[in-house]
């Protein structure tokens, strides 16, 4: 893993942390929707946005949930973002009242593409790097551009050697 880590810093996020931060995102969005404070639906940007979107939808009691599939990275190298699957067109409308949720914004390329499709939607991420911040309406925690965020679904617990000792 370390041999394909071009970033200077690593920020390792546990399930507990992403759960809490996603809840904080939901609470920040609560009552801010365009229809008397309500949001109509939640759309997760797959795959990373699915866990945060589920938590946001649960906290805000939103039952209409869809996905948009955008692929922009192979491991840690960025390719042009492409939409592989769009959400239901009738449900989306022009995006008004729709919360579009992703785990993070990095360069902003993914959100830029989705924003072009739904300019009136509200874009929310749990984490944000400075370059992508202009693309997101609401986020919880900012991290520096040279930090790679590791999510719990990409990690496993493993043995580490003691600080002093041989095994
Ligand atoms: O702001 P950007 O530079 O576009 O990067 C952010 C996007 O990159 C990652 O997704 P990825 O495309 O790797 O797919 P995944 O969610 O399926 O892991 C992450 O989950 C965001 O969706
Ligand atoms: O920092 C990151 N972590 C995980 N996935 C990502 N996709 C873009 N940037 C990141
Ligand atoms: Mg993603």
UniProtKB/TrEMBL annotation:
UniProt-listed SUPFAM superfamilies: PRTase-like
Major place of residence: membrane
Reaction(s) catalysed by this chain's protein: IMP + diphosphate = hypoxanthine + 5-phospho-alpha-D-ribose 1-diphosphate; GMP + diphosphate = guanine + 5-phospho-alpha-D-ribose 1-diphosphate; XMP + diphosphate = xanthine + 5-phospho-alpha-D-ribose 1-diphosphate
EC number(s) from the headed UniProt entry: 2.4.2.22
Residues given in the record as 5-phospho-alpha-D-ribose 1-diphosphate binding sites: 47-48, 79, 102-110
All copies of domain Phosphoribosyltransferase, residue ranges: 14-159
Cofactor: Mg(2+)
Recorded topology in the membrane: Peripheral membrane protein
Pathway(s) it belongs to: Purine metabolism; XMP biosynthesis via salvage pathway; XMP from xanthine: step 1/1; Purine metabolism; GMP biosynthesis via salvage pathway; GMP from guanine: step 1/1
Source organism, top-level taxon: Bacteria
Binding site for xanthine: 106, 149
Keywords for this protein: Cell membrane, Glycosyltransferase, Magnesium, Membrane, Metal-binding, Purine salvage, Transferase
Binding site for GMP: 79, 106-110, 148-149
InterPro entries recorded: PRTase-like, PRTase_dom, Xanthine_Guanine_PRibTrfase
A GO MF label: xanthine phosphoribosyltransferase activity
GO biological process terms on file: GMP salvage; purine ribonucleoside salvage; XMP salvage
Pfam families registered for this protein in UniProt: Pribosyltran (PF00156)
Assembly description: Homotetramer.
Protein name: Xanthine-guanine phosphoribosyltransferase
Gene designation: gpt
């Amino acid at each position: 893993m370390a041999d394909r880590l071009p970033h200077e810093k690593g920020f390792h996020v546990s399930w507990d942390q992403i759960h809490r931060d996603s809840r904080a995102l939901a609470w920040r969005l609560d009552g801010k929707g365009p229809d008397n404070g309500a949001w109509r639906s939640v759309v997760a940007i797959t795959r990373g946005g699915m866990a945060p979107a589920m938590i946001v939808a649960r906290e805000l009691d939103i039952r209409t949930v869809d996905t948009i599939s955008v692929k922009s990275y192979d491991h840690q190298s960025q390719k042009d973002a492409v939409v592989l699957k769009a959400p239901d067109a009738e449900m989306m409308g022009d995006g008004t009242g729709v919360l579009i949720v992703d785990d993070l914004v990095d360069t902003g390329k993914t959100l830029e593409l989705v924003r072009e499709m739904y300019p009136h939607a509200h874009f929310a991420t749990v984490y944000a790097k400075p370059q992508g911040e202009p693309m997101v309406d609401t986020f919880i925690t900012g991290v520096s551009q040279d930090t790679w965020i590791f999510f719990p679904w990409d990690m496993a617990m493993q043995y580490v050697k003691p600080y002093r000792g041989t095994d």
